[in-house]
Amino acid sequence: MYKIVKKWIPKNSHILDLGCGDGSMLLELKKELNINGLGVDISEKNIQLSLSKGLNVIEQDIDQGLSNFGDQSFDLVLMSQSIQALKRPDLALSEIIRIGKECIVSIPNFANFKCRLQLFLTGKMPVSSALPHSWYSTPNLHLCSLKDFESLCEGSNIKISEKKLIKASGENTFLSNFFPNLFAEIAIYKLEKKS
Amino acid sequence: MNELGIIEPEIFSFNETFPLESGKSLDGFELIYETYGKLSDKKDNAVLICHALSGNHHAAGLSNENDKRPGWWNELIGPGKAFDTEKYFMVSLNNLGGCHGSTGPSSINPSTNEKFGKEFPLVTVKDWVNSQNLLRSYLGIDRWLAVAGGSLGGMQALQWAIDYPDLVEKSIVIAAAPKLSAQNIAFNEVARQAIVNDPDFEKGTHHPKRGLGLARMLGHITYLSEEVMKEKFDRDLKKEKIEYGYDVEFEVESYLRYQADNFSDKFDAHTYLLMTKALDYFDPAKYFGGNLISSLEQTKSNFLIVSFSSDWRFSPKRSKEIVNSLVAAKKPVSYVNIESFQGHDGFLFPDSRYVNTIKTFLNSDV
User: Fold this and answer.
1) What's the rounded Cα separation, in Å, for the pair B49 and B74?
2) Do B142 and B208 fall into the same domain?
3) What is the pLDDT of residues B72-89, one digit of tens each?
4) Does B169 lie in the same domain as B193?
């Protein structure tokens, strides 16, 4: 994931990482690209881990809104596999497009063939390495397929300028490139506002 | 025995004219201060602690052999604590205008040979920062590794970052606000009125004990959350049943009266008036057209802003104003809101997340 993302990011960028987790992505970007990063997270543990990496991180619930961040105030907004866990991904998406000059969003693909097969054959909600939670305790409130996500972007006047499809392990295979909605487990998009 | 043992305070004397923000000036002053830990050879481990409204220089350790209560931030300052004295050289002073040994209303005015009392000029957070900077230079410290404080102390930390951007590496602003709200000023005004309307204040005895006690009672209510008051006192009665009179009946009344008594024996009323005024006047954006973002643009430190969930005196919302302005000014800032039921006083207690956050922030390379 990091290997792909870093190719899309210019050196010295001012980056907001929404749902920064333990801060490892920001730390890598800081080390290699000398970015100026700010993480946002809600978990005490993740905030502490990010701080211990020497990163700046703000405790904030993204579901409560992002109105405290100014229009186009960051070169880039990152949201790595968090959007499906938010109460209103559509509102969050329009907010990150407002805040960042560019945005990188990654999502787990619910229409991956493994998910389809599990649901079809077992009649149970799919559980996989990309989606490891049971239906009753999953933080993923709004799972979607790549097609779903792309049509949300289209309807929200958002341009997909780059797209990369990978497996949960991070590898990028022939099948996931040619039949993304069926084979990709995780999709990474670079987005910007349609001019 | 306390880990830091007995701490001997020291005095810094400044013998030149010291101009104040108000336009008045002081013909020199003295500051009483304590230090904990050792200044490194490179002099790169000094941390300044700024005190709150009724605080003083004695932040940690014991004052003497019979001292039963260690300094006000002893839970956070010491070996292995949030401010680890094995690593950092901590400096803590009594601010100008204080009543614990620094020049203030209870000091003798050399031109009259009497106590300054109400003649002592009002000093501001900016004045404190300027005087603390003179102390820094006297101590041979080129630059603070950090300036930290809670409440009014946090406001000093913020002012430091704005006024001396090259002299502060990290700013730790705890349970503070970028300026007081009308409600905050209103509480301070009631406290001041309690003092100035005490007949003993009029007589100029400098010890309006009842008024000062009332001010303290009021202040104390604003330092605690409703939850912590419920837990400590609930509606418990001092005696077995209600007596239908005006003597102390509820535990909470007894507690407040004890606080009032204890405080007003030790604290100077003019200092209390002055400190509340310094709070009311605090507004670093004032010199930047009222724009907090502009005032922060010149800062160079990395900020840690901490709030406490049940603090209603300077609520998390007020801390977020500082955070959001720093983000807008593209300055490095971290923010945590500590889950606590202690109210504003939360900043005095060693909650484990609070302690770890400060420790990690101080320790990290930024």
Assistant:
1) 12
2) no
3) 999 999 999 999 999 999
4) no
